[in-house]
Amino acid sequence: MKVYKVKVNGKVYEVELESVSEKAGNIEAPVQAAPQAAPVASGEGKEQKAPMAGTILDVKVSVGQQVNAGDVLFILEAMKLENEVVAEVSGVVKSIAVQKGAAVQNGQVLVVIG
To answer: How crowded is the C-beta side of 61, counted as CA atoms within 13 Å?
Structure first.
């Protein structure tokens, strides 16, 4: 066992790691088709993109809903941490390009707010 200290957001954690032997093998990730976003006409709204790759745990808004800048739109899990994706602008939700359980990439369009 090796003990390491890790500092995350100013808080220090002690982590114990156990050495294990390596095994040859294949890891296959489940393939999940990402829903396609409806095309957005120029000037229709602001596309808000995923700040990091992860999985959508919850969608907190619906199409037609009025949102304010700072309102929580999605809960995005990345590296076992739940992150709130908040609205960058105020407006009405024009379209939602992802659904609960979807895997998203960094920079992928999540929602259009107009």
So the answer is: 29
pLDDT for 40: 43
pLDDT, tens only, 4-30: 888 888 899 888 887 776 666 666 666
Strand partners for 54? 104
Q: Is residue 101 part of a domain?
A: yes
Domain membership flag for residue 1 = no
DSSP per-residue letters across 63-87? TT-EE-TT-EEEEEEETTEEEEEE-
What is the value of pTM for the model shown? Answer: 0.61
Rounded distance between C-alpha atoms, residue 79 and residue 85, angstroms: 15
Average pLDDT over the chain reads: 84
Rg (CA), the chain: 19
Domain extent at residue 84: 43-114
DSSP sequence for 85-99: EE-SS-EEEEEE---
What residues contact 105, with CB distance under 8 A and at least 6 apart? 50, 53
